[in-house]
Amino acid sequence: MKDENRLKNIFWTLSDFYDFDIFNFSLKPEDSYEAALLGYAARYLDFYVLDDFFKKYVNSLNNKKDLWEISKLVLKNIFSKEMILERPGTLDFKKDHDEEILKNLNRRKIIMTTELKIGHIRKERGQYPKVQKVLVEMLGEIYNFKERDTFKYLDFLRYIFKKYFHVNKDLPHDTEESYEEFKKEAKSNSTSKKNSPYQRKNFKDNTFLERYNIESAEFTFFNDDFRDINVIEDAPVNKFGDKNIYKALVKRYGIEKIKRHTADRISQEISTGIHEEIKFFFPVGEFENKSSYYAQEELGNYSDNLHFYENNKLQNSRAIRELAGVIKNSLLKESEDEILKSTSGRIVPSEIWKTRELNEDRIFEKINRKDSNEIFVDILLDSSASQNERKEILATETYIIAEALTSLNIKTRVFSYNNFYNYLIIKKYRDYNDPRIKNKDIFKYSPSGSNRDGLAIKFMRHLVSKNRDARRFLIVLTDGLPFDEIDIGIVGASKTPGENYKDEEAVMDTSKEVLLTRLKGINTFGVFTGEEAESMNIKKIYGNDYAYITDIARFHKVVGIFLKTYANKIE
Which of 54, 116, 274, 520 has CA 20 to 30 A from 481's CA? Predict the structure, then answer.
């Protein structure tokens, strides 16, 4: 399965076009080479105009995939050699790409576009293409086309489509007049900047264009935790690339309400070792442009998640009551109110005689109220893209847990985490002292990006360890695969700060942070939702204190079992 985040990073690195999501473009990359090629091409061609062309004339056709592949082959022919000269690291991408295509030579039946690609590779290598006669002429025309102009490229595609696909009933039935009108409008609305979108009809405030952007009151929980760290006041991101990344963060995740220097203080304190140069970003769920694509996407996710919960409201309400009962009868068993004899309080008439006869002055009853104020539960949700397919269930299950805990007045806090370039995104859905109504913010859960589990757990340890003399719990929901690749290996690219976080090194780092968290007296438990192949990772990280669940709808039950087991240990 292709890693979309890695391919996006490659595209952005080659194009420096951070406000464009290549996976919302008609021509999507299938591997690192295609991501690099499209990124390089985006420096010369207007990808917004190209996408309009494909949407208008290609994407509704049954044979659209063939036409997309031919379109990418033309780009390869135009830009590949120059890209490799400028970015030598992309040569390895191309070799892997070509070898994957050449594997098809052993197949009895090869589809037309694959045969065309094989022919192009052979021609590049100075070999005879060995393709069907009908493809020889097309391949020759593609090989000779080198224009870098947006409209000449579209003219050529249209010419190829009409000439070689004219017998196909799926051919777009556009007229010369229609296409010329399209070009005229596109040219008149284009700006001098190649990568700036032109205004489309029927869209207000560029809302539609926002879907091409990067993917992907101040926080009260900081208190005084990081006040003593020395830092240069208000350190705005000063590198051009960093500025672009930060702007993309704001567009993708919304604004921060803490000062940048506060977030930088946290980075200085926590981002050490393999996490050095990883920054923190704390969005509050508010967007500068409330009608932007990502603002609407977050509203859509909230609506989807809430709708999923409401569709099973009776079942979910029962789950909340059952979980609350489990917690009350286990974790809170020693917190039940006691009635004690006292020298003050409510007088007990039947005990009055003891004052005169026995000189006993404890003839009153006093209720010794034991509440749950000394219990703190933190829930940390992996919000990487791997959780996307189950986001509604995860949001519902987390809401059930939060409702059960807060109904018993247990201090409950819920966060999610994911990574974007060299930033760890921390979202807070509710804090310890928030009213129960805040639990609904959990339905804003929107997975994206990668995950640097060790740093997220280290961050939580620094927060939770402030609650001294309390029983503290940290429940981490994870896919069991800590992975955050920053350096994508392109020679000549301006390197994004930070080290790659993957494979055994990432697993061992996460394991270390879990151990250090437990040594602080924080009861840490992992709930694993990933593939069975990654289950060994979760055992290395959490030891025996984890649960592997194939049915995420059991999340709240697993949490109940964990809390009950802990209560039994301390009896």
Answer: 520
